[in-house]
Amino acid sequence: MEVLTLERTLTELDHVRLLSLARRQRPGVAAAAIEPLLDACTVVPSRQVRPDVVTMYSQVLLQDLASGLRSRLTLCYPADAEPAAGFVSVLSPVGCSLLGLTVGAVARWSTPSGEARSAEVVALLFQPEASGDYAM
């Protein structure tokens, strides 16, 4: 899975928590996919992150580029993931592809069956930092 094709911005808090999470994971695809992103991203203080950047617990509106269908997803940590309810783990292929993107960017990932998928980040419906929550 390619996760470094676009510039990514992470908050300092998200970066520290995700680096710790990646180090605690057993070796595998999930941790291996997010580590290069953590190494290459731009890190900013939570209070300085732009309101159009997908951070942890952001709710995004995506439009699938193949079907045109729109969906809402909330990017979360693995313990909070409930895909059927729209809560997607940052360690999943789609979650990792969204982290740090901006509105208008295209997320690209592969499904577990190997199918290539892509979706545009149409809107950021909620971002904790934009709402004044810097500790989520």
UniProtKB/TrEMBL annotation:
Keyword flag Transmembrane helix: no
Domain Transcription elongation factor GreA/GreB C-terminal as annotated: residue spans: 52-123
Example GO molecular function: RNA polymerase binding
GO terms for biological process, alphabetical: DNA-templated transcription elongation; regulation of DNA-templated transcription elongation
Transmembrane segments: none
Keyword Transferase belongs to the record: yes
Gene3D superfamilies documented for this protein: Transcription elongation factor, GreA/GreB, C-terminal domain
InterPro entries named in the record: GreA/GreB_C_sf (IPR036953), Tscrpt_elong_fac_GreA/B_C (IPR001437), Tscrpt_elong_fac_GreA/B_fam (IPR023459)
Keywords, comma-separated and alphabetical: Kinase, Transferase
A Pfam family it matches: GreA_GreB
Domain of life assignment: Bacteria
Protein name: Regulator of nucleoside diphosphate kinase
Species of origin: Methylibium petroleiphilum (strain ATCC BAA-1232 / LMG 22953 / PM1)
